[in-house]
Amino acid sequence: MRNHPLGLKKQHGVSLLEVLVSVLVLGIGLLGVAALQTSSMRNTNSSLERTMAVILTDSLAELLRANPAQARLGNYAFSDCVGSTELGTANWVLDVKEATRQETCPEVSWDVDRYTVKINWGDERLGANNEIVTQVMP
How many CA atoms lie within 13 A of 122 on its CB side? Predict the structure, then answer.
């Protein structure tokens, strides 16, 4: 056995302080991953709502193109948050509310040769408002 200077022994194993520091670093890393996952879920759900609103706007455009005589007269325009059961826009409004929020009120306005479709809803997860505006020529 060799003599160590000043009677110090060679260290064997890991000290309790080193274990505590490594657990602290690991804990901070796991909290960061959890926060990132939460943020990712919020943004994914908001992105899904925006995508569905765009797809539903496109489905309304197809509805207009399926009945061009009525569409060119401006009969598909509404701002009462209900739509028309005869023209099929009432079911479309229900689909928009299901895809975004129940309080969403889509508006379709007619201006001589084109429709302007506005879907506006609040997103409490991100603390923002989303709005989709599309113009459609029948």
Answer: 4
